[in-house]
Amino acid sequence: MATDKELNDFLRSVDQRAFKRTAYMVRDDDAALDIVQDAMIRLAEKYFDRPAAELPLLFQRILSNATMDYFRRKKVRNGVMQNMSDFEGGGEDGDFDLLEMLEGQDGAMGALSAADEVSRAQILQVIDAEVAELPARQREAFLLRYWEELDVAETASVMGCSEGSVKTHCSRATHALAKSLKAKGITL
Length: 188
Prior knowledge:
The protein is mainly alpha-helical and 188 residues long. The protein has eight helices and no strands. It has helices at 4-26, 29-46, 55-81, 98-106, 114-133, 136-147, 152-159, 163-183. α1 (4-26) runs parallel beside α3 and α2 crosses α3. The radius of gyration is 18 Å and the shape is globular. It starts with a helix and ends in a 5-residue tail after the last helix.
């Protein structure tokens, strides 16, 4: 059974990544925040008696299900309301900043010159935009594997598909990203 401290530490460690992943999926920062908060509450309320080692997979599954529920509700709502404002593009320049997260992790950003920091920020913005353009399943597999650092089996469990599908989605995502970034002059 996970202690309160273990649960709190786990939730603190995944909150920004979970928000970013969900924001990529729903393309609405407010909705993404609500989904992540609901998933965290559901984990704390219903799975508090599980061992700490099970929390990452449980949370990812809960988050994926909450995201799918959001899309189901939205589809029903749009079918009933036919709200034209839903066709407007959502702003993707929310409060979460990948550059800030990287600064907080390694503290090495202060050693870069101002020009290097600007260049890095611009490259990260391009990468961020390209990841957002991936098809939904490819983006989900890519983020779970390389952002959340889940293995293939864990990713398949979270996505509700086979390990082969995860590998295919990840391969297609990395090739598409490499191609689009190379076309923009970015080689990593």
